[in-house]
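Fig. S4 source data, part A: sequence.
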Amino acid sequence: MLVEIPHAGLELDAPTMNWLVAPTRSVARDADLYVGELYADAPSAGATVLRSNVSRFAVDLNRASDDFDGQTVEGGSTTDRPRGVVWRLTSEGLAVQRERLPREELERRLEHYWRPYHATLRALLERKRERFGHAILVCAHSMPTPKSRGLRSFVQNRLADVVPGTRGRTSAATRWIDEVDRAARDHGFAVEHDFPYRGGFSTGHYGRPDLNVHAIQVEVARRLYMHEETLVLEPAGVSRLQRFTTDLIERLVTSAR
């Protein structure tokens, strides 16, 4: 079992700060705040945890290294990609950087952050597969409450609490996907698969059931454990989700054995 947490970080190095114009509050609002705390007991439950401390405003570790457009980075594609491996716009539509990045700055960020992170992730998965015959990757994320009704995900007339993303059930074997579903429902959460999140780069890139590597993105609703405007934690919600994540990992480990 490996849990990766790519979006919880807030750190920005000095070269990145030279390009940043987004408000400090946006750095926190667009992070998966506190997701590390939700998986605090993951190691004792049987999982390795890989957590990044870097802000996605420096580099988004859940995007492909070539996922950027020409408005964001010099020489990029003509396709509009404002939130690729480098974010040009916050989730609220505010500018992240003061001007288009030169390729040299993108390359610096890839070399310092993106490549080491994915080299580590890849090595951990391969080591587990060699030792145990298979590896299971949980891509841990959080999701804001949608502001637009058109983006809302309804389950039994209410918003989904947990969204397992498996790219149409292709990134993991059915037994693991169903185990995530059962665990969430047993803890009283409303579940909806692949909507509005199907899984990002890590899920699609590393999820290879044919090679005995299974990846499932697990999105949990932020409203369950924090106040989304003040960004203040709600202890009762954190405890409930910690029980869920610990149980989820224990179930996956037990099933794998």
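Fig. S4 source data, part B ends here. The chain has one domain: 2-63+108-256.
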